[in-house]
Amino acid sequence: MRIARQLGLSLVVLAIPAVTIAQTTPSRTSFENSWYWGAKGGVSSFDPNGAGRINASSIGAEWLITRSRGALYLSVDQSFFDDVAGVYDPTVQGSVRPVDVSDWRRYGIGLLAFPVTWGNLKPYAGLGLSINVIQNADPQGTFTTTASQTRVFDDVAAQTSKVSATMTAGLQVQLGRAALFGQASAMPTRNNFLISGASHTFVLEGGLRFNMASAIDVLR
Q1: Span 2-15+35-212 CATH architecture
Q2: Model pTM?
Q3: Phi, psi angles (nearest 5°) of residue 36
Q4: Could you tell me which residues come within 8 angstroms of residue 8 by beta carbon, excluding any fewer than 6 positions away?
Q5: How distant is the alpha carbon of residue 122 from its chain centre?
Q6: What's the maximum distance between 2 C-alpha atoms anywhere in the chain?
Q7: Phi, psi dihedral angles at 5 (to 5 degrees)
Q8: Mean pLDDT in each 10-residue stretch from start to end of the chain (220 residues)?
Q9: Burial class (CB in 10 A: 0-12, 13-18, 19+), 178
Q10: Is 216 exposed, middle or buried (0-12, 13-18, 19+ CB in 10 A)?
Q11: DSSP secondary-structure letter at 67?
Q12: What are the residue boundaries of the structural domains of the chain, listed by start?
């Protein structure tokens, strides 16, 4: 699939800095050259149909492979909602076919920079890519012809997934091997996406990361 190929290519490009072989092994309490596993929860803010933003709760998991002042970031999360969107259909009144939509899964990859450290506080920011997939999308109503039904279902299928650039900023609090964090992300979702009522989707998240192991031991 085209989206899978795009994600695979992005993973190769973004992973290059994360696989450099270091000469020493850090302790697991060190941020540098470490592999963090994390769990998070938050809220996604988006507009499914141009009628106004809704806020959907989300949960997810993530992986952070760090160097001294940078990290490769991988994540998966899902927002839970149930609303109505629409696609163009000239055979219905208003030329908009209602589509029941629910639940939104995101797969993310990016590079984060940790430029400074203030005690145990580490602010960060980064750029990446997100694959956005609407989990359920069902066109409503009756169809006048088989051709119009096929066109609508094809349009819905094409607009249930979208690759977007993602901008992220956050703050991590180091607590030994554990780290608390909060972060905000923004991504454009206006074009060629089923829930495109607003130009951007915003995600506010918080959670816990845990330093599981050195990120370089397996490369020796």
Answers
A1: Beta Barrel (2.40)
A2: 0.79
A3: -100, 140
A4: none
A5: 21
A6: 69
A7: -65, -40
A8: 41 37 47 93 93 94 93 96 93 91 97 94 97 95 91 94 96 94 94 87 96 69
A9: middle
A10: buried
A11: -
A12: 2-15+35-212
